[in-house]
Amino acid sequence: MKAIVVREFGDPDVMKLEEAPTPSAGPGQVLVRIKAVGVNPADTYARNGGGSTKPDLPYTPGTDAAGIVESVGPGVCGVKTGGRVYVARSLSGTYAEYALALPFQVHPLPERISFSQGAGVFVPYATAWRALTHFARARPKETLLVHGASGGVGVAAVQTARAMGMTVIGTAGTDKGRDLALREGAHHVLNHRDKGYPNEILRLTDGRGVDVVLEMLANVNLGTDLKLLAPLGRVVVIGNRGEVTVNPRELMSRDAAIYGMLLWNISNEDAAGTHAALAAGLENGTLRPIVGLELKLAEAAKAHRKVMEPGAFGKIVLLP
């Protein structure tokens, strides 16, 4: 099979398309024929050796994918050959034509969701769901601010929060991105490159501020976020690329809180509940992954550069 292999940490060009042995499903394992692969910023951190977990070299990148169950090993229950699935982590990496996974890492993909969309389910939607429900404990009628509302996690958060009955304010850096966030359910979308956007958020909330902030770039926005919080407000930090200085008094005066979140810390129990919620949303159309760009598997380096650029628009997907 064809697979992307990383033999040294470094820039995107360390990823090479190679011929690799096609794995076989052993006891308790599932082999998935990959139709589409989701590209996430976390993939780039692992590749350059700076992620929260450092993979052993050599390795095949990727946690997200969608495809068809090729075979199942002895002892596997609940997963059938030929089934459409999305992959939420794997044993062998997803930047390949086939991936080996455990049964709890594959989940049914409804017919209404394409393989390319399915490749954008796990990291974006599980992150948004966990941030809103587990950490922020968001409630209907509360107001949510989603920074980067046009990216994979941002779109997932907008769709999820709107279905929960929240008032959603998003930010995005391009007209195309702002149009997308509005189309997917945000009530208001502002340009975060406009220095006046914090004042506009306060105007939209009659000076009260927002109850919840989902922050994708804390090193840039966190200090401002704290000034936009309503009493008992919560910030959930999902993404960060450097250090930041904040004034704790902004938290103290509001009885507010900052939560840091990493999807990889999710327990098996919480993961099962999360995937059950995502399945319901995918089936009823509440959750609709947006694919912004499709590239060939051999263009993985280009995808890694693109996913880190400003102006996010939906998911970047690789096609084996």
Annotate the secondary structure layout.
Layout: E1 2-6, E2 15-19, E3 30-39, H1 41-47, E4 64-72, E5 84-88, E6 98-101, E7 106-108, H2 115-118, H3 122-135, E8 143-146, H4 152-164, E9 167-172, H5 175-183, E10 188-191, H6 197-204, E11 210-215, H7 218-227, E12 229-237, H8 249-252, E13 257-260, H9 268-284, E14 291-296, H10 300-307, E15 315-319
Parallel strand pairs: 8-9, 8-11, 9-10, 11-12, 12-13, 14-15
Antiparallel strand pairs: 1-2, 3-4, 3-6, 3-15, 4-5, 5-7
Order of helices and strands: EEEHEEEEHHEHEHEHEHEHEHEHE
* CATH architecture assignment name of the largest domain: Alpha-Beta Complex
Inertia-based shape:
globular
CATH superfamily of the largest domain: Medium-chain alcohol dehydrogenases, catalytic domain
Count of helical stretches: 10
